[in-house]
Amino acid sequence: MFYSVEQPVPQSGDNPGALDKLLITLLAFEQQPCWRLSDLARALKIPKGTMHRLLLKLVSYGFLYRQPATEAYCLGSRIRVLAARGWPFQFLSDFAHPYLEQLALTTGETAFLTVVEGFYCLCVGRVEGNQPLRLTMTVGEKSPLHLGASNQIMLAYLPESTQAEILRYWIPEESRRLEMQETLKSIRKNGHIYTAGQLTPGVAALGVPVLDEAHNLLAGLSLAGPADRFSIEVAYKTLPLQQQAASAIARELKRLSPQSNGQR
Q1: Which CATH number fits the domain 90-261, given the four candidates 3.30.465.10, 3.30.450.40, 3.40.50.720, 2.60.40.290?
Q2: pTM of the complete model
Q3: Which residues of 86-115 are buried (b: 16+ CB within 10 A; e: fewer)?
Q4: Picking from 45-49, 59-63, 107-111, 256-260, which range would have the lowest pLDDT averaged per residue?
């Protein structure tokens, strides 16, 4: 349904400072969890001696550790702790999972839960259907917020000022931005959106919003499958199921929120 926004291995650039080099080194571990010293120095174009000092500094703070057998440097426990504390959507994906499972089981297609992260749509939940052709988008992948069903349904429910900023980021032509603004108004009025081939050729999806009682956006919920199987007619037959699941997720969010339990 979506494609991931692949980031190249970061380069050191011209005369980076010590902090820049340290952060560039750490960011390289987005590409793979372990690096050998020589390979990483070559990839980042940083002298081997400097790279060794940077790696030792990251090891000293627990961001990396060194495997004795292979002499490779790998992501350490401190990274995992920070990731767990900095992933605000984990609780959402955890208790939404049963609803995604039910959607996938009932329809046979793949169910996705997405949220807004900056200018992107971020996948935080996925359950595969039982149909022969499955989709490859994984939890944690991002895609442009103006393309695709889960993406556009969320964009449609954001404040107009936020919409405008996001559209300026992705669409340089003013005429196309105005067209998209009209499309978003229509999506919000209808409460759902069907797209085909916008992000992945041959893949179609139907998306609905997950909204709180004040009609504020919480997440996007969608089903996706091959366009020749998940036609618009077939997709719309699943719309009531998706809307019921979205409402159930919103109710669960309210029930589990601190305010609903009298906590302040």
Answers
A1: 3.30.450.40
A2: 0.68
A3: eeebeebbeebeebbebbbeebbbbbbbbb
A4: 256-260
